[in-house]
Specification:
With 363 residues, this protein is mainly alpha-helical. The protein contains twelve helices and two strands; from the N terminus they run H-H-H-H-H-H-E-E-H-H-H-H-H-H. InterPro entries: GPCR_Rhodpsn (IPR000276), GPCR_Rhodpsn_7TM (IPR017452).
Length: 363
């Protein structure tokens, strides 16, 4: 009878010490989380502005191109990109803001998976659509005898979106709740990162290597196509300058010769004869109409090329920061709040692409 009586107080003290230790650990995690949230305020404000501007801008773009714009391949390209951009502004950015506020107290694995899957799907889908855009611009400008009709453009945009969704499936397995050191004793918080089982797995490395190769091959291909497009446009502009100079000199020379040789009463109809008989005048008129159409093609090519460049520049800082973070220990990252904030700012810089595209379309 005496043995349980002596053990019961000891068990109570042990349980109380565990509770105090758990409370102390939770308090440490909450304080560390609040400190990181305070450091992330500039990033949160930045993302909030992008979310508002991007949501409004992409809604306007979708309305204009779905309701007002005529059926064309460019319409499908811009609508497809705007849908992905709107998804980033209404789903990706809000969850990322939640992630910044709960950087060490993230408890919902499903929300974490939605965030990472959305990021990969939007990035891959946008890359594939930009590749389709590059192919379409190349065909229209460099291979005018060929043509990508509206139906083909629509099918390719849908295929690009489905391909982006397929590439994001592994992210639903790789990402989840991870335990990360907070820099105090051995205390660890909960973050939205790679699952513990995949942190050092070969599958994670193979997946990101595949994504990197897809991005590299795509941008090399697009760069090659846009370089050829630029060469063709520059060559055409040079020809237009020569033809414009000829159309200004040759007809005037013929007109002066006819005026000097014709009787006074026939001089009034000489311009009409010259305009009717001179094939260069006819050619110049048709070139003006054709150059207007080519000018529209060139303008759309410049706009879509700008979208491609902005996409690459907005994702480049995130790529560089991720490479730098891969070489750092988690403890060193959590101890430097300012550096961590700057790193987080550039990691989320790719959201600029989703908000600025509507501005580019309006140029």
């Amino acid at each position: 009878m005496t043995l349980p009586a002596t053990e019961e107080p000891g068990m109570l003290l042990e349980n109380e010490s565990k509770l105090f230790k758990e409370d102390d650990t939770l308090d440490q995690i909450l304080r560390a989380n609040d400190a990181k949230t305070l450091a992330y305020i500039p990033v949160i404000v930045f993302l909030s502005i992008l979310m508002i501007v991007g949501t409004l801008g992409n809604v306007v773009v979708l309305y204009v191109y779905l309701v007002k714009f005529q059926r064309a391949s460019v319409r499908h390209f811009i609508v497809s990109l705007s849908i992905l951009d709107l998804l980033a502004c209404t789903v990706g950015i809000p969850i990322e803001i939640y992630n910044l506020v709960h950087s060490l107290t993230f408890e919902y694995s499903f929300i974490c998976k939605v965030l990472r899957v959305t990021e990969v799907m939007i990035a891959c889908g946008s890359v594939f659509i930009l590749l389709v855009i590059g192919i379409d611009r190349y065909i229209k400008i460099c291979k005018p005898t060929m043509n990508m009709n509206v139906r083909t453009a629509k099918i390719m945009c849908i295929t690009a979106g489905l391909s982006g969704s397929f590439m994001s499936v592994p992210a639903s397995m790789l990402f989840g709740i991870s335990r990360t050191p907070i820099g105090i004793n051995d205390t660890k918080g909960h973050t939205c990162d790679f699952e513990e089982t995949y942190k050092d797995s070969a599958f994670r490395q193979i997946y990101y290597l595949a994504l990197g190769l897809i991005f590299l091959i795509t941008f090399v291909s697009m760069s090659g196509m846009y370089i050829q497009i630029w060469v063709v446009i520059k060559r055409r502009r040079g020809k237009k300058t020569v033809l414009r100079a000829q159309s200004m000199t040759v007809p005037m020379t013929n007109l002066n010769d006819r005026l000097s040789a014709a009787p006074p009463e026939e001089s009034s109809i000489v311009p009409k004869e010259n305009e009717a008989d001179n094939p260069k005048c006819k050619k110049n008129i048709f070139n003006f109409a054709g150059s207007s159409k080519k000018g529209k093609i060139s303008r759309s090519a410049v706009i879509l090329f700008t979208v491609t460049v902005v996409f690459a520049l907005s994702y480049l800082p995130s790529l560089i920061v991720n490479i730098c973070y891969a070489a750092l220990e988690d403890e060193s990252r959590t101890q430097r709040h300012f550096e961590d904030m700057v790193g987080k700012f550039f990691m989320d810089f790719y959201f600029v692409n989703n908000a600025i595209n509507p501005v580019i379309y309006s140029l």
